[in-house]
Design brief:
Keywords: ATP-binding, Nucleotide-binding, Transport. This is ABC transporter ATP-binding protein. One of its GO terms (molecular function) is transmembrane transporter activity. Belongs to the ABC transporter superfamily. It comes from Merdimmobilis hominis. By secondary structure, the chain is α/β, with parallel strands linked by helices. Helices cover 29% and strands 29% of the residues. It has 6 helices and 10 strands, in the order E-E-E-H-E-E-H-E-H-H-H-E-H-E-E-E. The strands form 2 sheets. Strands 6-7-8-3-9-10 form a 6-stranded mixed β-sheet, with helices on both faces. The chain has a 4-stranded antiparallel β-sheet with strand order 2-1-4-5, with helices on one face. A hairpin with a 2-residue loop joins strand 4 and strand 5. The longest helix has 18 residues. Bound molecules: adenosine-5'-diphosphate (2 copies). The site of one adenosine-5'-diphosphate (ADP) has 12 residues, from strand 1, strand 2 and helix 1.
Length: 229
Amino acid sequence: EPFITFKNVTKTYRMGEVDIHALSGVNFCVEKGEFAIVVGPSGAGKSTILNVLGGMDSCDGGTITVDGNLISDYNRKQLTAYRRSDIGFVFQFYNLVQNLTALENVELASEICKNPLDAAKTLDMVGLSERKGNFPAQLSGGEQQRVAIARALAKNPKLLLCDEPTGALDYQTGKTILKLLQDTCKETGMTVIVITHNQAITGMADRVIEVKNGLVSSMHINEHPVPVQ
Ligand code: ADP
Ligand code: ADP
């Protein structure tokens, strides 16, 4: 069985009198160690996929498995443990704690999980050991995102979920962040999923999952992923 499976996953939001079908029967899989990109226009359902996969929200129907576990059947307590130990999160706007240093931000993440990596070592992995004593406001956008990636890696997660990780960065910096995520995936064997509306970066993924109107409209494998252009 693949590392991640979505089978007929549905999610509906009730807005007053109106039902909004965010996911209308989503099917896809991702193999262990893949660098996968979920791409689609705004409103397609990408964040909803990330939320149900990351255990932040539950789906209404269908099944989701991660590493052989049926997470769509997890209760709240199980989901909290899953979010804390199994998943690393990277966000568009970094979500760093402003009054903690880079190193302290990374240490914070390792405190809540079961098998943390050494915080200083993960800052080294992202090339930021020299900046460990700096506060977020003293770092560039790209550096802040690298701290956020180090924080996610410090949890030693099975799965890294990245929501528009380059959305707040200039083009060149965005490229180095994507390259870092791709290299981390290959070097650690960790499964990485990036959510984006940016079609231009799909060539670098091992697997591309296109989402439209709450459905997967196509899925393809790149036998020879290319670096970001
Ligand atoms: P994307 O991330 O691709 O932009 P989303 O998953 O955020 O798409 O949204 C899919 C659909 O679900 C959209 O129509 C959006 O308005 C709706 N939606 C998402 N979250 C909520 C929510 N909490 N309440 C109501 N509707 C929502
Ligand atoms: P609790 O609220 O039970 O203390 P949290 O959900 O705050 O647990 O934290 C568990 C993990 O889930 C943390 O690593 C955190 O980064 C992540 N997390 C929590 N909420 C979200 C969210 N909305 N989106 C992405 N990740 C989240």
